[in-house]
Amino acid sequence: MIYLQLFLSFLQIGLFSIGGGYAAMPLIQSQVVEKHGWLTMNEFTDLITIAEMTPGPIAVNSATFVGIRIAGLPGAIIATFGCILPSIIIVSILALIYYRYKGVGMLQSVLKSLRPAVVALILSAGLTILIHVVFGGQSAALANVEWHMLVIFCIAFFLLRKFKLNPILVMTLCGVAGLIVGLVLNGGVQ
Amino acid sequence: MTKAQKLLKLFLSTLYISAFTFGGGFVIVTFMKKKFVDGLKWIDDSEMLDITALAQSSPGAIAVNAAILVGYRVMGFFGMVVAVLGTIIPPMAILSVISLFYKAFATNMYVALLLKGMQAGVAAVILDVVFNLGTNVIKERSVRSVIVMVAAFVATFVFSVNVIIIILVAALVGVVAEFIKVKRAKGENK
User: What is the ipTM of this complex?
Assistant: First the structure.
């Protein structure tokens, strides 16, 4: 029965979270903490921290985390499947429509307007991350600027534009640079 | 490249992207663009933006939705299955392991420093891609595209308008523009 409950809960999370991870968070909380009591609020906060620190969508991370704690590995697989099933059905239908009617004037005009909007949304997401990193999550005042992060960003941006380096390599180098600089700044006390 | 080789390549590419992509859905879409548009040239620029818009406006995780669309576009049904598996296996594997000792992970200083440096790299990768996409929009020399791009950016970045609303309004602009175009064409025929 627990498998069915996990499946149905994450099915709802997958179905009703539109617009990415932050939209899914309150839904996950209501299903996992409030409705079923699978996690305490404290554990849920830990889960969100981990989800932000690890790759992958928050919904998939949550499904795995909750599933494995409640019902082991089969629980994780069933919860994850429930979470992605609505996507698979709905997005497949949209894909069929898109590839069949892409050439129709109306759809072309809609897509022509959507593309610049999507560019703007990606820009906004990138700037938000940059601001968060450069100001260390604090308010955007000059005193809060973490200069070494800004330098790491600028070098990474330059390497990408000038030499078209592999983005995942650039990211990994940034991580190593952040670790080294962070340890030096902390004086290696810890 | 035979079909089996292409499927394998698709699977490994999504697996690799998913394993190294921290942050929200737009981050993974950016890496997919780098891989499938710039690297493998399986999908073109404007199609990737359409995929992003569809993935963003459908229920569920953006990364999973984008994988469904990319997989379907490249290799049909089997492509979709392979791309989705590639996208969910890394977070599932990582979360399964972390759920065993999550307290230690979430509070580890070295992990935190490494991830912070990587965030600076993520910002650089996103802004690099936005630079290319934005240049293409401006090259279109379409007043409508530029206005939509600027308006969408101000709405999301300055006023934090819900992303779904922005996409719906942009789509509506496309519908209205097409109606006006059709009406004008009819008027000229009379």
Answer: 0.81
